[in-house]
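Researcher: I need the complex structure. Ligand is (4S)-4,5-diaminopentanoic acid. Inputs:
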Amino acid sequence: MIYQRSSALFAEAKKYIPGGVNSPVRAFKAVGGDPIFVKKAKGAYLFDEDGNKLIDYIASWGPLILGHAYEPVIKAVVEKAQNGTSFGMPTEIETELAKLAISMVPNMDKIRFVNSGTEACMSAVRLARGYTGKDKIIKFAGCYHGHSDSFLIQAGSGAVTFGSPNSPGVTQGTAKDTLLAAYNDLAGVKELVQANKGELAAIIIEPIAGNMGCIVPTDEFIKGLREICTQENILLIFDEVMTGFRLGKGGAQEVLNIKADIVTYGKVIGGGLPVGAFAARTEIMDYLAPDGPVYQAGTLSGNPLAMSAGLAMLTELNNAPEVFKSLAEKTAYLHKGIGKVLTEKNVPHQINRFGSMISVHFTDEPVVDFASSAKGDNDTFKKYFHGLLERGIYLPPSAFESYFLNDALSYEDLDATINALKEIDL
Ligand code: HOZ
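Model: Output:
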């Protein structure tokens, strides 16, 4: 495939935008080469500026669970836009989306809408600190909760891809309140909690991690976290920006059967428009301004276009929850197909999967945390990534990201992907 125009557009973008992109992982630095510039997309396919058609496995990093340009979402946004795009005043649709979202997820009474997953996680931690009157938090190495200061400590996603898991610009004062544990290491968490007894406001976790590849928690680990939090009066924050409304109606809370104290959302809840949210029980949420003392605000929060996209998306998922099963089956099919080809090629690999999230790691060892994920062979990943790209298949351009399947993908698309892999010399 030819990507000439994309390369020219990238060269032009680099003159005016740092690195030519507005989010680092898009720049392809981890895999080399120039990024693809998208012209349009429909269903499971991207159409780039060179006229290539690509099968898409990122779905805008998760939101487009039903495929690109999904008709009911587009219709809702276009209709809404006729009446004005932003008011900075309350609108009825905010309550409609709040009601629907709360009805779909377990254990949440109230929800506040923001504009991104970063804002949602940043606000959730502030709320946890205000509510508990404590300062410290525990996060897990390789988990990524957006780019606010408290979280850029051994962060995953683009932060680790580009070698700045601890970003310059985060003050030591901020960093000292973020304690670090290893994913799936309950003993390590227990030690940290004992060493900081009475000082911890929250433990924040991606209940299925998606920013160091896809990593699944053991039952013992995730249940243990819940127990520790309950015993020690620490709030358990589930960052469900990736998993919320993707793994099931009730997200990871439902599929893992664990109740969190605060849950953050993003991606699917905005149907492809910029929406983040955080939710909790009433006694916690009432700590937020204007009812309570913890401040949080935003001019574009609850924006009517974004709310209409989110409402259309969640309405579809609420009415047709069989989509979650269908997606999980497609992902299992892809897992089996890729696994067979890599085994036949004698390429050491691990495939991690949960629901419609999946990642391929080129290593012999099980990938259960950041340290094991980082052992993946990036040279093989680059060949795998570019080999598939040359054959019209678009994967996340970093080994530290999960793929997100969308339900517009057909079994023919999955077979085309598996067959393309057969042709690649790894
Ligand atoms: N940090 C996002 C993935 N985990 C990537 C966002 C983007 O580049 O759009």
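Model: Summary of the prediction. Residues 24 and 62 are 17 Å apart (CA to CA).
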